[in-house]
Amino acid sequence: MINYMKLKSVAFFIGSMLVMTSCNNNSTKSNDAKVNNDTTVQNNDALFPKGEKVSDEWFSGDAFLQPLLARDKNNDFALGSVTFEPGARTHWHTHPKGQVLIVTEGEGFYQEKGKPAQRIKKGDVVNIPENVEHWHGATATTKMVHIALTNYEGEQNVTWLKPVTEEEFNEVNK
Questions:
Q1: 84-114, pLDDT tens digit by residue?
Q2: What global pTM score does this model have?
Q3: Is the dihedral of CA 33, 123, 82, 73 positive or negative?
Q4: Per the count of CB atoms within 10 A, which of 1, 42, 111, 138 is most buried?
């Protein structure tokens, strides 16, 4: 179910995202780190900001969403960067018109109901068919960040189901 695309085919997409964000960034980077006024060093290696914590209604653990592009008259999808801290994951869910994940950092899992979990890592692209029950998130010990492109059917783009149990999550982390 994982469709591995060559980096070259994704480069234009990610490159255009970088151009969009750099146009809005007025700060100057120096060696990918910035010293704050309180003299702490902040790492700016992330492709996008971490975003806001997502609801425990749909995710387990500490997960964060940075919206990148809202659905509009030209695009019948939403685009966002999701950061999963170690152990964080979505609940089981489906998408009426499918979803695409592009892993930009770390390692995690993607699992379809009734199938073995698949380990995903930076550079992987996951093409999730419509109406397939699945979950995705970080491993128990590593962070994972992905860009999610989620298609709409009418006004709906996701149906949330039950949480992934600790037993299910521990099984894939063996």
A1: 999 999 999 999 999 999 999 999 999 999 9
A2: 0.75
A3: positive
A4: 138
